[in-house]
Amino acid sequence: MPNRILVPIDLRSPENTKAVLAGAVKQWNTMKDPELILMTVVPEMLAGLDWRYAIRGETGGSEEWDIKKALQATVAHLNDVASEQIPDGVTFKTLARHGSVYEEVLEVAKELDVDQIVLGAHRPRSTDFLLGTNAARIVRHATCSVTVVRDQ
Question: Which helix (H) or strand (E) holds 77?
């Protein structure tokens, strides 16, 4: 059975994405029969927000919200980012979900029976200690090991 590493990626944070992917590749290199699974979550959309902006930071007028189209565009973008940043020889799979970030990450981790989650986290702000971040919620509720890669 492969050693599965789930890597949640925030496509809106390129610097953090680079660090998280580097950390995930380090873990991949230490495992026997590793499987790298990159995922991202399309957030719930606010009324009036163009979904293309939420995924890629693009503007250009609104477009009707189509979750299937948004997920396809997100996976394509995730594949592009991963292909640019993951070294040759490191195999990976990609997927996208829609909803609450921490809930979707935990659900995928459970569904795929992952051995480890490698995720990024921003330096905590004072509000994070009260409300909790997605990373903190994932760390608290994951049933597998979690590696947190901090931003610089």
Answer: helix 67-85
- How far is Cα 123 from Cα 48, in angstroms, rounded to an integer? 30
CB 137 within 8 A of CB 109: no
Q: Strand, coil or helix: what is 81?
A: helix
> What does the pLDDT look like over 6-59, one tens digit per residue?
999 998 888 889 999 999 999 999 999 999 999 999 877 544 455 555 555 555
pTM score, whole prediction: 0.82
For the chain, the 3-state helix, strand and coil shares in percent, each to the nearest 5, are 45, 20, 35
Given a contact cutoff of 8 angstroms between Cβ atoms, the answer to whether 38 and 96 are in contact is no
CA distance 121 to 128: 11
What b/e readout covers 50-89, taking b as 16+ CB neighbours within 10 angstroms?
bbbebbeeeeeeeeeeeeeebbebbbebbeebbeeebeee
Angle between helices 134-141 and 101-111 in degrees, nearest 10: 30
Distance in angstroms (rounded) separating the CA atoms of residues 123 and 80 = 27
